[in-house]
């Protein structure tokens, strides 16, 4: 009888859910079981309004079948950090407890462009017996709140334990002292955390979050990572304001695991929480204010790379060195323990000699729960493709680690000093770049900047259209530093933002993110609001196991290099169609790669729809106002020197991208220039950018380095030569004769 009642409850619940306007389930496939009861059946393509509705649907289905579910892995966008995919798994997935069987059953939903969540993958087979189906019990993700805490915005009274760091201007919390002295605990009846919640001290914030976690059924720790953990994304971050109070500025409540039973509220925080952290670990930890928030700094550095990774990588490095004499690797050893790792093969080192002027430090592992902290150095080749310039495993995200990695890269690349670098904006990375590459322009990673911008301004931008318009106009339309400063100051005053710590920091670092300041530096045309496509792409995922890492890594590398070879072939063997009789177009077609010529050709064709008006002359320098016909809003100023044919435009396209803009080309037309000066056709964009004699032998390093790079270059050219020569018998005979003649000529050289 109880079984029948539960069945009716399930049917009643699902009838309500499928009829409700908020259900978000557009289509359900059903069938009847042996008892004639209707049952909802998940299938690929099923749509939901939210991920929570997908979870609720899967829970109902699981209850009908006779198993339980829990939240699995979540995946975040590499652009803005938002959740784009969720997995819901059988509760017996994995082997973390004795009751689990490693069950493979799951569903995965992903967010599509419409904002809906679509069921993309499903595995229905289980490896265990089912329980009796019963009453619906949604997985425990939230518990009842025990009261509320009012936000600082409302001027409410705030809980308060006197802060010991009120007298500590450095923002350091003495963990050792905290552990020994705080033994009184804290009441467990607390509300839920939220952005804007204030505390008088970091200690108080820790106690609050501990109490909240205890009531919910999970445990907390201070934010350092370890490879054995499952990558749960839930956290609370606090930031100290100038008033001395600590405010919750970042918060994620979603977990990817089951909750435990709530902890006993009579047990004090100090006696339980610090046992969980481990006294041996806490003795070596400091909480330090970094990058606007509270971060953990270890007095004794530890590696987040598993010991088995070092063994596997060293075997791989030795085998590669045996076949590639230009292969470089370095391992940092600290107190007898392995720390950071860096490596680069001869091809990456040779590529850096041609394309090392702009580098991107790709730390995609920071945007997901990756099993290994793999980072790559990327450049931009002459086809505007990402090119690998080295790899690293980052033991810990400290300034010491990043400094060592940048120094190792510089040694491998024979002292290369890039013009610019795109990397995350963490203080540790900023300081390391300033130390190792003091004259390199550091630009913030777009994904991280946009994520931080959304955290700090998301509500204001969405709720106040006027502010959004003025904010974007300040950033994207300012033509000079004075214009930007004036617009920025107006925003700070009008919207009362002068005391905002985030705005103060962003203004101080404006040269690392404001387009006006970025466009004056060469970034190989990488868009201001974007970056290079990750080199590993979908080959390396957060779940890539140790035994597959090297195989997948080499597969990704080879795929990119094959794509580069295809573009090389096209550039040398195909010709783009000319659209004008301008000799400059023919000149550039002859020199540029196919991809770069298309970009140049677009600018050349566009310049015909512009007019140029001379506005003043100072000696040999004439200035022109160049604007689009019929569009007076688009104006740029071009300076042209008649004595040496130097040209510069206020749009800064050549400085940023290395290709002359339509405005400069219009002035060349006015001045009847029939051939571009060679300095305006960068060698790095030419067909011959990566072939032939090394352009700067003195910067190539020692004799061994030079020989390795020359060997790689000759072998790469010989490989292409052999493929062409073996196409037919006639070509083979010609190729063989040319090789013999070439060898005879080499013998005559000293």
From TrEMBL:
Any one GO molecular-function label of the UniProt entry: zinc ion binding
Compartmental location: Nucleus
Superkingdom, taxonomy of origin: Eukaryota
Pfam families, A to Z: FAR1, MULE, SWIM
Region Disordered, residue ranges: 147-166
SMART domains per the UniProt record, alphabetical: ZnF_PMZ
Residue intervals of the SWIM-type domain: 636-672
Residue ranges crossing the lipid bilayer per the database entry: none
Gene Ontology process terms (BP): regulation of DNA-templated transcription
Chief localization: nucleus
GO cellular component: nucleus
Keywords annotated in UniProt: Metal-binding, Nucleus, Zinc, Zinc-finger
UniProt similarity note: Belongs to the FHY3/FAR1 family.
Summary of the function given for this chain in its UniProt record: Putative transcription activator involved in regulating light control of development.
Protein name according to UniProt: Protein FAR1-RELATED SEQUENCE
Organism, as annotated: Genlisea aurea
Species classification: Eukaryota, Viridiplantae, Streptophyta, Embryophyta, Tracheophyta
């Amino acid at each position: 009888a109880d079984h029948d009642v539960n069945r009716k409850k399930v049917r009643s619940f699902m009838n309500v859910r499928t009829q409700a306007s908020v259900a978000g389930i557009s289509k359900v496939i059903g069938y009847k079981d042996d008892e004639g009861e209707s049952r909802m059946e998940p299938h690929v393509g099923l749509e939901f309004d939210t991920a929570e509705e997908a979870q609720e649907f899967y829970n109902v289905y699981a209850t009908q079948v006779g198993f339980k579910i829990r939240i699995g892995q979540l995946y975040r966008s590499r652009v803005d950090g938002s959740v784009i995919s969720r997995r819901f798994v059988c509760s017996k997935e994995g082997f973390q407890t004795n009751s689990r069987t490693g069950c493979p059953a799951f569903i995965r939903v992903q967010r599509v462009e419409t904002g809906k969540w679509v069921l993309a993958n499903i595995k229905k087979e289980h490896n265990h017996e089912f329980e009796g189906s019963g009453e619906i019990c949604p997985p425990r993700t939230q518990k009842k709140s025990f009261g509320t805490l009012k936000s600082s915005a409302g001027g409410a009274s705030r809980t308060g334990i006197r802060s010991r760091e009120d007298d500590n201007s450095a923002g350091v919390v003495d963990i050792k002292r905290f552990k020994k002295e705080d033994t009184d605990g804290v009441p467990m009846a607390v509300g839920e955390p939220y952005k804007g919640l204030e505390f008088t001290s970091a200690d108080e914030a820790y106690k609050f979050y501990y109490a909240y976690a205890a009531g919910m059924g999970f445990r907390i720790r201070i934010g350092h990572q370890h490879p054995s953990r499952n990558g749960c994304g839930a956290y609370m971050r606090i930031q100290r304001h100038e008033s001395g109070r600590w405010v919750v500025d970042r918060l994620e409540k979603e977990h990817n695991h089951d909750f435990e039973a709530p902890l006993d509220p009579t047990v004090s925080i100090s006696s339980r929480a610090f046992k969980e952290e481990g006294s041996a670990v806490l003795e070596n930890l400091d909480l330090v204010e970094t990058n606007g928030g509270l971060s953990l700094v270890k007095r004794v550095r530890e590696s987040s790379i598993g010991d088995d990774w070092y063994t596997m990588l060293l075997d791989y490095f030795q085998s590669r060195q045996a076949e590639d004499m230009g292969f470089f690797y370095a391992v940092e050893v600290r107190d007898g323990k392995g720390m950071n790792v860096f490596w680069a093969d001869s091809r990456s080192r040779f590529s850096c000699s041609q394309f090392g002027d702009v580098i991107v430090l790709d730390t995609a592992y920071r945007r997901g729960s990756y099993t290994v902290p793999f980072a790559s150095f990327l450049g931009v080749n002459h086809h505007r493709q990402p090119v690998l310039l080295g790899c690293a495993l980052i033991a810990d995200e400290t300034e010491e680690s990043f400094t060592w990695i940048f120094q190792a890269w510089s040694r491998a690349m024979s002292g290369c000093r890039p013009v610019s670098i795109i990397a995350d904006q963490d203080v540790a990375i900023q300081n390391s770049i300033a130390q190792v590459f003091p004259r390199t322009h550091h630009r913030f990673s777009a994904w991280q900047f946009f994520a931080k911008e959304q955290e700090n301004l998301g509500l204001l931008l969405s709720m106040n259209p006027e502010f959004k318009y003025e904010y974007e106009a300040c950033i994207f339309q300012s033509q000079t530093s004075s214009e930007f400063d004036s617009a920025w100051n107006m925003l700070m005053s009008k919207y009362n933002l002068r005391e905002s710590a985030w705005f103060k920091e962003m203004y101080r670092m404006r040269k690392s993110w404001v387009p006006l300041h970025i466009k004056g530096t060469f970034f190989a045309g990488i868009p201001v609001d974007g970056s290079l496509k990750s080199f590993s792409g979908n080959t390396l995922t957060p779940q890539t196991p140790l035994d597959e890492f090297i195989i997948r890594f080499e597969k990704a590398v080879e795929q990119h290099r094959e794509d580069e070879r295809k573009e090389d072939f096209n550039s040398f063997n195909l010709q783009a169609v000319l659209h004008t009789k301008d000799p400059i177009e023919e000149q550039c077609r002859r020199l540029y790669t196919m991809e770069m010529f298309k970009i140049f050709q677009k600018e050349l064709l566009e310049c015909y729809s512009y007019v140029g008006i001379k506005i003043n002359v100072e000696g040999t320098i004439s200035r022109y106002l160049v604007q689009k016909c019929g569009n007076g809003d688009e104006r740029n100023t071009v300076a042209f020197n008649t004595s040496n044919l130097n040209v510069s435009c206020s749009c800064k396209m050549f400085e940023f991208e290395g290709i002359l803009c339509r405005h400069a080309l219009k002035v060349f037309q006015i001045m009847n220039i029939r051939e571009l000066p060679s300095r305006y056709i960068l060698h790095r964009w030419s067909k011959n950018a990566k072939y032939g004699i090394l352009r700067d032998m003195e910067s190539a390093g020692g004799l061994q380095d030079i020989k390795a790079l020359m060997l790689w270059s000759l072998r790469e050219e010989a490989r292409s030569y052999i493929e062409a020569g073996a196409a037919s018998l006639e070509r083979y005979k010609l190729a063989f004769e040319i090789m013999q003649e070439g060898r005879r000529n080499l013998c005559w050289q000293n």
